[in-house]
Amino acid sequence: MKEMFKINQFNLMASEMIALNRSLPDVRLEGCKNKLYPDNLPRTSVVIVFHNEAWSTLLRTVRSVIDRSPHTLLEEIVLVDDASERDFLKRPLEQYVKRLEVPVRVVRMEQRSGLIRARLKGASISTGQVITFLDAHCECTTGWLEPLLARIKLDKKTVVCPIIDVISDDTFEYMAGSDMTYGGFNWKLNFRWYPVPQREMDRRKGDRTLPVRTPTMAGGLFSIDRDYFQEIGTYDAGMDIWGGENLEISFRIWQCGGTLEIVTCSHVGHVFRKATPYTFPGGTGQIINKNNRRLAEVWMDEFKNFFYIISPGVTKVDYGDITSRASLRQKLQCKPFSWYLENVYPDSQIPRHYYSLGEIRNVETNQCLDNMARKENEKVGIFNCHGMGGVLCKHKQNNQSVSSEFATYQERCKQTCQHFSTMEMTEPIA
Ligand code: UDP
Ligand code: MN
């Protein structure tokens, strides 16, 4: 089991023991189970990109789409192979999907391109009015599709995400996700889940079965009208491998006149991993920082400085040419980032008005106010100025003798990182 875990960074042995068409609990709110939807909903193509995915998780994703979607609403499933290096994902996969009850097409990227360009390829060859993106290790539950399509039918500028349930990377147990969390991000531009604020509960008059307006999407699972996807500029094809594209499309949707929602009556499971199983050609940090810089430079206006000040190393990373994305923003007459913070994400950690950005340093002792990796609302401490911004977990001592203060500091860093282990993929524990 431990050996097989390394292949995909989840318990592959458990996955292989579970049927491809296993039953799942109906985790919907009671009020969702008897909702009625119009019967002329738009049809969707389901686009699933993968790189070296396991057979069982990939085909369980496909099976769950086929088994739990009305076939009248399912145009096709498109599998985009991002240059995988597994023989079973070549001809055996093509042979297998031929026998399925819904048209399943397999297309291949000529070279490793990353999930962004792979999704673009899948979108471009698909034909449904709606495009639904899923990761390659998902399971759709009863009634997942209709509420998503119904929102798009009502307004094609609405981009919708299901509640993402948790499939344990250890046991493959299916656990309901919460309808009381939504998407945000922190100063390092990491996607994070946060509690749905009171204002959003009030707007829905306390009805938890109504869609939640969310500042950001997690990224892997969403549906969008094909024409609207084109209209707002699909994805930034200058982004590589993984990361940043979810915040980029989230900011773009909101700033350019769309709406982003979590449809709480739609539940899809996803295997959340603690580490990534595949390579990032060119270096993980390099790639994620490049993608994040593209996103910050195009969409965040002066607020990009929060990101740069908290991760000073980032400004050394080359982000390539962004002129076409900048002119897209111009063409669509998108609103400033301050509008987004004010109206869509007022509970953001980024202050909308501030006096100065920087550090508070005692020039005599060279010590700085430091959050000591403590949580929000806890007291700050004093620590040697490290000039590394908020990248606490990476802090390394040059010197082998560790002071007691430093030891507790390191311990706290570790705890903080471990606490966020499922989300904090970009900052390895030092
Ligand atoms: N993926 C891909 N090419 C890549 C990296 C990822 O096609 O270079 C696929 C991957 O197989 C998965 C999806 O993109 O289906 C999202 O990646 P992952 O699941 O690793 O991201 P996470 O869910 O951990 O954020
Ligand atoms: Mn995933």
From TrEMBL:
Gene Ontology cellular-component terms listed: extracellular region; Golgi membrane
Keyword flag Oxidoreductase: no
Classification via Pfam families: Glycos_transf_2
Domain of life (superkingdom): Eukaryota
EC number(s) on file: 2.4.1.-
InterPro entries found in the cross-reference section: GalNAc-T (IPR045885), Glyco_trans_2-like (IPR001173), Nucleotide-diphossugar_trans (IPR029044), Ricin_B-like_lectins (IPR035992)
Subcellular location per the Swiss-Prot or TrEMBL entry: Golgi apparatus membrane; Secreted
Domain Glycosyltransferase 2-like: 45-229
Membership in a protein family: Belongs to the glycosyltransferase 2 family. GalNAc-T subfamily.
Pathway terms, separated by semicolons: Protein modification; protein glycosylation
Protein name: Polypeptide N-acetylgalactosaminyltransferase
Bilayer topology: Single-pass type II membrane protein
CDD domains tied to this protein: pp-GalNAc-T
BP terms from Gene Ontology: protein O-linked glycosylation
Keywords (A to Z) from UniProt: Disulfide bond, Glycoprotein, Glycosyltransferase, Golgi apparatus, Lectin, Manganese, Membrane, Metal-binding, Secreted, Signal-anchor, Transferase, Transmembrane, Transmembrane helix
Obligatory cofactor(s): Mn(2+)
Keyword Transit peptide: no
GO MF term set: carbohydrate binding; metal ion binding; polypeptide N-acetylgalactosaminyltransferase activity
